[in-house]
């Protein structure tokens, strides 16, 4: 297994380099100049000499190959650079906002699993019944509903319910407080977006759980064993569920990795100062250093998550061997 882990980590190097090259090129294709944006903020007159001095200071006048090699070298030495917009270390910018996005991603993943696995399993076991149709409708609604609309409607619903109940509309707090400092205030801020995102991601997992469960239950050995009696049916259903969860585990891992960087719309709707909102601001401000760091953060999380999921496969199914 250790040899397999080392091999996977080595294979991750081309993935990281390719992602770095892609984001580097795309950021240079976006029209605009961070120096012009920074110096001209508020409608101030931009002095060409000041712009040139700013570009020289940020290394934007260097050849592209030199900029790219400096970019790669900074990640090898774990020095992610200084934000072109704020002048603060990128590590500090990300560290200040990562807890919000990470907590929402974890909570949304837990909510998605808690909804998807039971409903997907029941839907498969009660195939073509009214319960199956209801679960499938819930899943399709989650897939079809835009995230921004779902977030807005959840806020409107909370406002209406609290106004009818207390006579005063209640809104979630804006300023982030960690769970360890004030659990109630923290949950009142992140629970609603976590439920919103969790429901949408549960829809895909729900349908995949149902499909995987049905595929396993239709195997010949499963049907033969189920025909032997109730006790055998219970044992076989557990075996079918275990085999059906193998592809679902992969999907959950991928969803969690994408959630870290995919909360852009949700954080905008709920006014959360997380990674998604920081990414939007970095692109708007032409902050290449910060944008590249955020993209690479998502790529690294994605690579690590996939490795962990592959290792979980061996735990769920001992027949799997690493080579």
Q: Could you explain the architecture of this structure?
A:
With 323 residues, the protein is mainly α. It contains 13 helices and no strands. The chain has helices at 2-29, 34-39, 48-58, 64-76, 90-125, 130-144, 147-166, 183-217, 220-226, 230-261, 264-269, 275-284, 288-316. α8 crosses α10 and α10 packs antiparallel against α13 (288-316). The longest helix is centred in the N-terminal third of the chain and has 36 residues, at 90-125. The model has no long low-confidence stretch (mean pLDDT 79).
Number of DSSP E strands: 0
What does the average pLDDT come to? 79
Low-pLDDT runs of 5+ residues are: none
Principal-axis shape equals: globular
Q: SSE string, helix = H, strand = E?
A: HHHHHHHHHHHHH
* Structural class designation: mainly alpha
How many strands, what sense, and barrel or not for the largest sheet?
Answer: none
Helix content: over 70%
Strand content: under 5%
Number of helices: 13
How far is the N terminus from the C terminus?
8 Å
Rg, Å, rounded: 24 Å
